[in-house]
Amino acid sequence: MFHPSLTTLFASLAALLLAAAFLAGSETALMSLNRYRLRHAAQAGNRGARLAEGLLAKPDQLIGLILLLNTIVNVIAPMLVGVIALRLGGEVLLVVGVVALTVVMLVFCEVGPKTFAALNPERLALPAAYVYTPLLRVLYPFVWATNLLANGALRLFGVSAQQRGHALSGEELRTVLAEAGAMIPQRHRQMLVGILDLERVTVEDIMVSRADIVGIDLEDDWDEIIERLRQTQHTRLPVYEGEIDRIVGLLHMKNVVHALARGRLDRDALIAAATARDTYFVPSGTPLNTQLLNFQRDKRRLAFVVDEYGDVQGLVTLEDILEEIVGEFTTDPATMMHKDVHRDADGSFVVNAAANVRALNRSMRWDLPIDGPKTLNGLILEFLETIPDPGTTLKLADYTLEVLQTGDNAVKTVRVQPPPSAAAAPPG
Hints:
The protein is an alpha+beta fold.
């Protein structure tokens, strides 16, 4: 009968304890890996990352392999301790050996390796992939049989063993961007979040309201129309008859600029240029991500926003949507302030109450509520539930608002005093 020496028994026990520590740590490391960082490393040519990605593609097989090896270690190690204890001191030393083995395995083979692996998953997981990949091929029949029994038991309890995807939802991706820190520049993070937010925002939220639409009324005197064409700063102008709901078409200035400069433009030519292409209308509830694709598909840059009754509520442009992603296009600090905002000497701001709240927040770096009315006037009326008198002051989301002017059943001008945090931030 084979009787190994005590040296062989101690060496075998040490090897088993090292194996137990490796199994515990590598399991935690592999399961703690960032899957997207792992995929990036694999695509960059890291062989260890490719092997680890292959193992994690079938986690049931990986876990089955680790548990199979761990079971072997946990069975043999106490047997060796028992043999060593009986040889050295009999049954009395056996109890001491079992207690010592329990402490060693708990501290050095479980808690220690798993803590290290959780803190440094890549340092342990990638080398471990070189070990587990060939072992899985060799022990595959045993792993397959073990998984077959385990998956069958899971199905009895209504649990599917199929692996779920690791795709991130929009909210999870926002969390990743928020925690990226210095890894992604703040400006880039803002742009990425802006792209994600397109599905939350509709064209109604960013449109130019019908009251602010600059266009050509065909019922005006012809000399007034010519003067407006010469002074306009817009490249596209709506053409309508009497009111904006009676739209004739959209005039592109490049189509009439030469005739206008030579004094040969007449009413018929103006109408012909405006009706050269069908007017483009979109429902007010269209999300911005959808409208961006629609603009691209239809090769359009401007659309009229209509409500459920077909009445024009405003207009939205491709530039408006892009500004939701990249911010204001202007880079001149002197022009970064919103056109409807004027700074007072005391640090407050006099604001046109018809201004769009989202546009104010974007250009002024404010944080006024955007989940309700679209304009500052609408915010005030919703909060007070009445049309206020001039001089009325209210507190809205830490912003102090003082009504300066009212008229036509609406607030016209408001003085805004931002909180210190917002006031300290430069506009733009």
